[in-house]
Amino acid sequence: MAKHMGKKHKAPKQRKILKEIIGKVAHSGRRKTKGHSRAALSDAKSERLPLVTGKLAMTPGGFGFVSVEGQNEDIFIPVKFTLNGMDGDKVKVALLPKREGGIDEGRGPAGKIVEVLERKRETIVGELISGHKIRPLNKRISEEIQVSGSLCGAKRGDWIEVKLLQTENDGYKRGIVTKRIGEVGSIKSDMDAVMAEYDLPDPYTDEQNEAAARLECAPIKRTDLTSVFTLTIDPQDAKDFDDAIS
For residue 29, what pLDDT is reported? Predict the structure, then answer.
């Protein structure tokens, strides 16, 4: 090391000072380690951190926040510390220590997910893309999901529903296709995909639609503007024209 630092071997006093400095750094715990030693040190450090349990809310950027009951501030979870948590999961978080005088001083608490305790969802809806993967409809799930087995007749560019498979805490997500919903871009298929993803109620039955048709509309005062020249940028299949000028 003395050679790389430009110190000559015939300077014993300088070599002695250098050895003392290296010894102090090594004993202070600041010496870098490699391989499993560093991982073991990191795991041991995580075990000593305070632990809390809360609900995870993910963001399109890949990072998240954990809300803890009875705690005013949410815990910020950086991208590299989200483990394999998904939006809505119940997770266990190790709180990261704050550095006095550092860039994180004055900011809210931050942490790392150490365990996923409970999954909020069992299925996910997404667009089938190349490589037997789906791009999730829900933007809070930023990672693509690998699918295996039968595609249930789906092809690239279709909405499909996928049952998530149980995985270890390694951040890897995969699943199996449970059904094909329809082609992306079709109004009906897009609506069906949204309903399946967010668990919305089923469409009205024929009986309910007939009952609604028998209802009498309340009188509304209207002004006839059909003779006024109007331009609109609404598409041909729009149900209302709210982007127009006269």
Answer: 42
